[in-house]
Amino acid sequence: MATSPDDAKPLPPLHGTALVLLTIAVAFSTFMEVLDMTIVNVAVPHIAGSLGVSASEGTWTISSYSLASAIMQPLTGWIARRFGEVRTFVFSVMLFVVFSMLCGLATSMPMLVFARLMQGAGSGPMVALSLTLLLASYPKAKQGIALALWAMTVVVAPIFGPILGGWLTDNFSWPWIFYINLPVGVLAGAITWTLLRKRETRTFQSPIDVVGLVLLVAGVGCLQFMLDNGNDHDWFASPMITALGLVALVCLTFLVVWELHARHPVVELGLFRQRNFTAGVIALSLGMFAFFGINVVFPLWLQTTLGYTATWAGLATAPVGILAFLLSPILGRNMQRLDLRMVVTFAFAVFAATAYWFSTFDSSASFATLVLPRFVMGIAIPCFFIPLNQIYLAGLPANEIASASGLANFFRTLGSSVSTAVTVTLWQHRGIQHHATLTENVAPANPASGQILRQLTHGGMSQMQALGYTDQLVNREALTLAVNDIFWLCAILFILLIPVIWLARPPFGSAGGAVGH
Predict the structure, then answer these.
(1) Rounded Cα gap, residues 368 and 155, in angstroms
(2) What's the CATH code, domain 276-517?
(3) Other C-beta atoms within 10 Å of 416: how many?
(4) Beta bridge mates, 203
(5) What is the DSSP letter of 142?
(6) Identical fold between 13-207 and 276-517
C-alpha cells in the first residue's frame, strides 16, 4: 500500500475563492457529462443524414455512450483507489474533452461511435468523483450545500439538453453539440488540478480483479445494448435480444457471487451490507425509474401525438427545472435541521400527485395546462435527489465514498435505462390495446361515429378518406389514454416507495463520515 506523506494529517477544507472556483469547475464538468446523455437525442436525424446512415443506426451514438458510461461507473471506486481521486477525475475530464472533439470531427458512423464510446468511458467516473471531491473540499457544516449544488447540476442538465441540442443543430450544425464541451472541460480540468493536485487521496496497489472486470463488462454491456435496442427488435421475439438478455443474466449473477467473495473486488458490493446505503440506493433507483419514465414519454407524446415540434416539447418540459434550481441551495443549507426521510417522503408524495395530475389530461390539453404540473413537480426534485445522496453516504468512511457514489450512480443510470425501455414499450402496447377498444365503436351503426363519418363525407371526403381521418383521431386518443396509463402507474410506484426510505436509520448528518483525506 502506498500512501501520501500527508496521510496522517487530513488537510483542512477549502475556503473563499478557491472553494467557489472548485465548485464552479466541478459543477460544470458534471453538467457537461449529464448534458451529453440527452443533448444528442434531438440531433440523431441530422447526424444520421449527414453521415449517410438510417435513423435507427444513428441511435448508436446514444447507445455507445451510455454503454461505456454504465460500465465505468461501478469501476470508479477501484480506479480512484489505484490512481488517486484527483488524478482520476482530471484524466476523465480530459479524456471526455479529447473525444468530444473527435466526435465533432467524425466523418463516418464507425468513427463517431468509437469516439462516443471513449467519451462515455471518460464520463463514467466524472459524476461520482465530482461529488466525492466536493464533499472532501467543503467544511462539514456546509456539506449539505455541496450536495445541493451537485444535485442541481445533475437535475437541470437533462432538462436543458434537448433544448440546447435542438438550438445548436438548427442554428449551426450537429458537431457543435460536441465542440461546446471543449472550453468547459479544459477549464474545469485545469482549475480542479490547480486547486487539488496537492490534496490527492492515498492510493492502493490493489491487483486487478480480471474475472470480475470481464463479468462486469460482458454483463452490463449486454444489458445496456439489450435495453437500447430491444424496442426496435420487438424484444424477446428477436433471437439477438433474447441472447443478450441471457448473457446479461448469467454474467451479472456470477458477478454478484464472485465479487462478494473476491479478495480485491472490482465492484464494492459489500456496501449493500450498510442499511442506509441499501435503502437509499433502492429508493434512488426506483424513484429514478418512475421520474425518468415521465420525462421520456411526456415529450414523446407531445411530438408524436399532439404535433409539437422538438423545441416546443423542450419548452413544455423545461419548467420542471425552475423551482428545482431555486430550492436546491435553500434545502442544502437547512438539511441538518430536517429528518431527511420526511423530506424524501414529501418528494414522493408530490411526484405521485403530479403524475396523477398528468394522467387526467386529454389530447385537447393546452400548452399552459401541460406546463403547470411540470412547474409544480420541480418542488419535489431537490427533495428527492439531495437527501437521498446524503442518506446513502451517511456514516461511510472517506475511502469508500468514491465506490459508494460510483455504485449509486450506476444504479441511477440503470434505473433510467430500464425506465426508457419499459415505459416506451408499455406506451406503445397500451396504445395498440386502446386503439383496438376504441375502433370497436367506429361503425356506421354507432350514432356518434356515424354522425362524424357523415359530416366528413358531406365535407367533400370520400368514404375511405373519412375512415382514414377517423382512424387518425382514434390513434391520437388511444396514445393519449396509453400515456395516461403510464403516468398513473408512475404515481402508484412513487407511493409504494415511501415505506422503503423509512428503512434507513439516522443520523444522516455526516455525508460520508470523515471526509478529510
Answers:
(1) 23
(2) 1.20.1250.20
(3) 23
(4) 2
(5) G
(6) yes
In the chain, what are the domain boundaries? 13-207, 209-265, 276-517
Determine the 3-state secondary structure of 65 from DSSP.
helix
Kindly state the cell numbers that stand for 510.
455526516
Structure-block grid coordinates of residue 291? 421520474
* Closest of 308, 55, 62 to residue 163, by C-alpha: 308
CB neighbours (10 Å) of residue 337? Answer: 7
Give the rounded percent of residues in the chain with a pLDDT score beyond 70: 87
Could you tell me if residue 514 is left (phi over 0), alpha (psi between -120 and 50 degrees) or otherwise beta?
Answer: beta
Q: What is the 3-state secondary structure (H, E, C) of 462-488?
A: CHHHHHHHHHHHHHHHHHHHHHHHHHH
Q: What is the pLDDT of residues 368-389, one digit of tens each?
A: 888 999 899 989 988 888 888 8
String of b and e for 214-232 (b: at least 16 CB within 10 Å)? ebbbbbbbbbbbbbbbbee
Helix (H, G, I), strand (E, B) or coil at 180: coil
Q: Which amino acid is at 352?
A: A
Nearest to 79 by CA among 171, 206, 191: 206
The DSSP secondary-structure symbol of 394 reads B
Cis status of the peptide bond prior to 507, with omega within 30 of 0: yes
177 vs 215: CA distance, rounded Å: 33
* Backbone Cα Rg of the chain: 24
Give me the CATH code for the 13-207 domain, please.
1.20.1250.20
- The 3-state secondary structure of 236-276 reads HHCHHHHHHHHHHHHHHHHHHHHHHHCCCCCCCHHHHHCHH
Maximum CA pair distance of the chain?
A: 89
Q: What is the pLDDT of residue 153?
A: 77
Q: Grid coordinates 465533432 are at which residue?
A: 104
Cβ count near 253 (within 10 Å): 12
User: What pLDDT was estimated at residue 454?
Assistant: 65
Query: Measured between alpha carbons, how far is 501 from 499 in angstroms, rounded to an integer?
Result: 6
The 10s digit of each residue's pLDDT in 244-272 is 999 999 999 998 888 888 777 877 888 88
